Amino acid sequence: MMKWNFYFIRKWALVFCVALAPAAPAGAESAAIGVVRRVYDAAVMAYSSDLALQDAASIRIRNSFDFAALAQRAIGAPWQQADASDRAVVIDVIARSVVTGIIQRLGKYRVGGLTILEETALRGGDRLVRTSVALGPERIALVDWRLQASHDDPKIVDLIVEGRSMAVTEREKFRRELDASGGSLKALAATLGSRVPLR
Question: What percent of the chain has pLDDT over 70?
């Protein structure tokens, strides 16, 4: 009994030590978390500001993503046969679609703010930043951000909102449109581009 009590006490002492440990200073945040905060803040700015600030915020969001990697994941095998001009058009369409979606979905929830839950390392060196966004007094959305491996300037390659991957969503959309376009990436990009605001 005494031995069990000793281990029990030691276990809970460690728990309390961890709980009472001071939080790391803001400057100690990783580069990946910094990118996530930058994108969220830009989405809020773009949603609620004038046109000039909206454009600047949109550029900031766009520069935080690796849309070439996202486009490749979305298109799949046909990407390997596409020429540079086809790829550029598809990347631009995906970028405008994703930036618009982030601004519309995350920007309006500026009151509750973004909470960083944890950051973990994935196989291959990518980072996963788990966050929550307050959608209202009693509703929280879980948003995971996957960033490619890079110490200095990590880029977002996927966004998982409530378990739904942005890369998977784009891939499903592109596969349907690609079939409807007879396998032409240019025709697909023109179709999708007409549905996305140029700004």
Answer: 77
Q: Answer whether residue 198 is part of any domain.
A: no
Residue 23 located in a structural domain: no
Q: How many CA atoms lie within 13 A of 76 on its CB side?
A: 11
Place of tokens 């961890």: 18
CB 95 within 8 A of CB 60: no
* CATH code of the domain covering residue 88: 3.10.450.710
The pair of three-digit structure tokens given for residue 86, joined into one six-digit string? 């086809």
- Backbone CA torsion sign across 59, 65, 71, 74: negative
Separation between Cα atoms, residue 186 and residue 71, nearest integer Å: 14
Q: Note whether 87 and 70 are within 8 A (CB).
A: no
pLDDT in tens, 112-150: 688 999 999 998 889 999 999 887 777 888 999 999 976
